[in-house]
Design goal:
This protein is α+β, with helices and mostly antiparallel strands. It folds into two domains: 233 residues, TIM Barrel (Alpha-Beta Barrel); 210 residues, Jelly Rolls (Sandwich). Helix content is 32%, strand content 26%. The chain contains 15 helices and 29 strands. Helix 2 runs parallel beside helix 4, helix 8 runs parallel beside helix 9 and helix 13 runs antiparallel to helix 14. The protein starts with 5 loop residues before the first helix and ends with a helix.
C-alpha cells in the first residue's frame, strides 16, 4: 500500500479527524474546569432576616449554630486528612438541602455581644491551614450553594515563599474579594513541644516537617507550642515563667505584625491550637498568657473540637467546632450533627429506588453507585434487612468491605425477624469472626486476626523500637541544621539499624500496635452457605472451609455496621459513628453466579456509563499530572 492509495489516505484522515476532535473535547473540558475554578462570576448573598426562619426570638428556644472545620480539600480525597472535592460537595449540599445557611463572623459576634438572633439552621464554615488546593477545589462549591467560609491561615507561611502548599497574601486578598471568603488565623506557626515517641523516648520540639515524618512513631504525648511550658524528659519546666511569657508573647506579636503588614488588620477569628484544655492551655499560667492575647487581638476564638453545636451559654472565646474526616459519608456527617443539636434531620438515601430494596432498622443508609453505606447510631450500630429475602437458604455471597479497619461490618444469613436465629460473618477490629445463633444461644465457629490469616509476621517489640529510633535519627539527619550534624545523625541511624533485636520467632513479645480509626480498609469477602456447612474466603484466601452449622433453615439477609469504642487517633478526635461500606454486594443461589438473587452492581447501560466515567477521571488525572 502506498501513500498515493486513496483508500489509505481516507482512512488516515479519518483517524486524524477523530483524534483531533477527541483532543479538542478534552481540552474544552479542562478549560471549562479551569474557568469554574479560577473565575468568580457571582457574588455571595447573605441571609435575609425577613425571608429566613430565625431562631431564639419571641420566646423560642435558642437554636444556636453549627460549626464545621475541614482540614483541607483536594480533588479526590485519598489522604487521611484532606477531603475530596466531590465528597465536600455532598456534605455541604446535604446541609443546604436541610435548610442550612452560612453565617459570617460578624453575625456570630452580634449573636453573642448584642443578642441578635441567627437563622434556625445556621452553619459557620471554616477551612484550616490556609492551603492553596483548598481554595481551588472548594470555591465552585461555595458559589453553587451560596455558602461563605473562613479561610484560616498561619502568619508564618506568609513570610515564606518556598512552599507552594499555602496561599500567599495576594491570593488571600483575591479570595476575600470574591465575597465567598473571610479570613481567620490558626496562629503564627505550627510547632510541637514536649514530644515523646511511643516508647517514652524524649524527642523535645518538632516543626511540621519533622512531625509529619515522625507521626507514625509518636503516641499522644506531645503538645502544641502555645499550650504548655517547654519541659525536659522528666516533665520539669526548662524555662521560667517570664521566659514562657516572652516566648508566647513573641508568637502573638509576630502574628499581629505580619497580618497588619500584609492586610492592614488582624483577623477577628482565631482557632487556638490545640484546645480542649478547659482553659487556654494545659497550665494555669500559660492559659492566662494566651487568654490575655486572645482577648486583646480577637473577637471570636474556637477553643474546643469534637462537637459542632454552639449556643449563647458558651463564651465567645470558648467556641467548639467539629472536624469532619475525609472518609465520612453524608449520613455520617448528618448523624453527628443531629445528635449534637438534638433536632430532627433527614438522612439521605442516595439512589432512592435502589436503596428502597432495604429496610433500615437502625441508623441510616445510602445507596451510592455500587456501594451500600450503612451508618451506625452514635456509640451503637446500624442494621438493615434486605426486603423479600426471607426465603434465602443456600447461597453464594460476594462483597468488598470498605469501611475503616477499626469497627464492625457484619452479614447475617438465614436470619429470623428478631435475630434470635442466624449465621453471621463479621469483620471487626482487624479480625474475621464466624458464628451462629440458635434458640437465643450464640456459638463462635471461627475467629482469627486477618493479618495472621495472610501470613503477616508481626515485628517484635524490640524490632519495632529499633525501627522507631532509626526513623527518629533519619528525621534529625534529613532536617539537620548543618551538614556536619546531618552526617552525625545519619551515622547513628546506620549504627542503630545494625544493632540486634530479638524476633517473635525467637520468643520476643510481638508488637501489638493500636489501629488508627481513620485507617482505610478494602477486603473482598466470599461466603458459601450450603446445607449444614459454611465456607468463607478473604480475597482468594480460604479462612473457613466447610465448617458445620446447625442453622439449616431459610431466612433473611441483614447487614450491620458497628462502632467500636477502643479505636485510636493520634489527633484524639471524638467520633462515635461508623460507616459500614458494602461494595458490589452480590447474592446468588449457585456458586457459578448464574442465578442472581440480589446485587448492588451496575447492570447493562449503567455499567458502561460508570466505566466511561472512570476512564474520563483517569484521563483527567493524567492531564493534570503531566500538563
Amino acid at each position: 500500500m502506498s501513500l498515493g492509495d486513496p483508500a489509505f489516505t481516507r482512512a488516515k484522515n479519518r483517524k486524524k479527524y477523530v483524534r483531533t476532535v477527541f483532543e479538542l473535547i478534552v481540552c474544552l473540558a479542562i478549560a471549562v474546569l479551569l474557568v469554574d475554578v479560577f473565575c468568580t462570576l457571582t457574588t455571595y448573598r447573605p441571609f435575609d432576616e425577613n425571608a429566613t426562619p430565625m431562631g431564639g426570638i419571641e420566646g423560642e428556644a435558642d437554636t444556636g449554630f453549627v460549626t464545621l472545620s475541614y482540614f483541607g480539600v483536594d480533588r479526590k480525597g485519598e489522604s487521611n486528612t484532606l477531603i475530596g472535592q466531590g465528597l465536600l460537595r455532598e456534605h455541604l449540599t446535604a446541609l443546604h438541602d436541610q435548610g442550612y445557611v452560612t453565617v459570617m463572623q460578624k453575625d456570630i459576634d452580634a449573636y453573642y455581644r448584642e443578642g441578635k438572633p441567627l437563622p434556625r439552621r445556621s452553619l459557620f464554615l471554616m477551612f484550616e491551614d490556609g492551603r492553596r488546593d483548598t481554595a481551588i477545589f472548594s470555591q465552585e462549591i461555595l458559589e453553587d450553594l451560596n455558602f461563605k467560609a473562613s479561610m484560616m491561615t498561619y502568619a508564618e507561611n506568609f513570610t515564606r515563599s518556598d512552599d507552594p502548599t499555602f496561599l500567599s497574601p495576594p491570593e488571600v486578598r483575591e479570595l476575600i474579594h470574591s465575597s465567598y471568603w473571610e479570613m481567620g488565623t490558626n496562629g503564627y506557626r505550627m510547632r510541637f513541644i514536649n514530644v515523646f515517641d511511643r516508647y517514652g523516648n524524649f524527642i523535645g520540639e518538632l516543626d511540621p516537617r519533622r512531625f509529619a515524618m515522625l507521626r507514625s512513631a509518636l503516641s499522644r504525648r506531645y503538645n502544641h507550642y502555645l499550650m504548655d511550658f517547654i519541659r525536659d524528659k522528666y516533665g520539669v519546666p526548662k524555662e521560667s515563667v517570664n521566659r514562657m511569657r516572652s516566648r508566647i508573647d513573641y508568637d502573638y506579636e509576630r502574628l499581629r505584625d505580619v497580618y497588619r503588614r500584609e492586610f492592614d488588620t488582624v483577623p477577628t477569628l482565631y482557632v487556638l491550637m490545640h484546645g480542649n484544655t478547659g482553659g487556654f492551655g494545659n497550665n494555669r499560667k500559660v492559659s492566662q498568657c494566651n487568654g490575655r492575647w486572645i482577648r486583646q487581638l480577637f473577637t471570636l476564638n474556637f477553643n474546643r473540637e469534637g462537637y459542632s453545636f454552639n449556643q449563647r451559654n458558651s463564651s465567645v472565646y470558648d467556641l467548639t467546632r467539629m472536624q469532619p474526616q475525609p472518609d465520612w459519608s453524608r449520613n455520617h456527617l448528618l448523624m453527628r450533627v443531629k445528635y449534637d443539636i438534638n433536632q430532627p434531620l433527614d438522612f439521605v438515601s442516595g439512589d432512592a429506588e435502589r436503596e428502597s430494596a432495604w429496610e433500615v432498622l437502625m441508623g441510616a443508609a445510602e445507596m451510592k453507585e455500587e456501594q451500600y453505606i450503612l451508618t451506625s447510631l452514635p456509640e451503637s450500630r446500624g442494621l438493615a434487612r434486605l426486603k423479600n429475602s426471607g426465603g434465602f437458604g443456600d447461597l453464594h455471597l460476594k462483597v468488598q468491605l470498605r469501611g475503616n479497619r477499626f469497627g464492625e461490618q457484619a452479614l447475617y444469613l438465614r436470619a429470623n425477624d428478631d435475630l434470635t436465629r442466624y449465621v453471621a460473618v463479621r469483620l471487626m477490629d482487624g479480625e474475621v469472626i464466624v458464628g451462629e445463633r440458635m434458640g437465643g444461644e450464640s456459638r463462635e465457629i471461627f475467629r482469627e486476626k486477618i493479618s495472621v490469616l495472610f501470613g503477616a509476621v508481626p515485628p517484635s517489640v524490640e524490632e519495632d523500637r529499633r525501627a522507631v529510633e532509626v526513623l527518629e535519627l533519619e528525621t534529625f539527619a534529613r532536617y539537620a541544621d548543618s551538614p556536619a550534624q546531618a552526617k552525625e545523625y545519619a551515622a547513628q541511624a546506620i549504627d542503630r539499624a545494625q544493632q540486634p533485636a530479638a524476633t517473635v520467632a525467637e520468643g520476643a513479645a510481638p508488637y501489638e500496635g493500636l489501629t488508627d480509626r481513620n485507617e482505610r480498609f478494602f477486603q473482598w469477602l466470599t461466603i458459601d452457605l450450603t446445607g449444614g456447612t459454611i465456607s468463607v474466603k478473604l480475597d482468594d484466601l480460604t479462612a473457613v472451609d466447610s465448617a458445620p452449622v446447625k442453622n439449616t433453615g431459610n431466612g433473611s439477609l441483614y447487614l450491620e455496621s458497628g462502632w467500636s469504642g477502643q479505636s485510636w487517633s493520634q489527633r484524639n478526635l471524638a467520633d462515635d459513628v461508623y460507616d459500614g461500606r458494602f461494595q458490589k454486594l452480590t447474592v446468588t443461589a449457585d456458586p457459578q453466579g448464574e442465578i442472581v438473587l440480589y446485587t448492588t452492581e451496575y447492570q447493562g447501560w449503567e455499567k458502561y456509563k460508570a466505566l466511561a466515567g472512570e476512564k474520563f477521571e483517569d484521563l483527567l488525572d493524567w492531564f493534570m499530572k503531566y500538563t
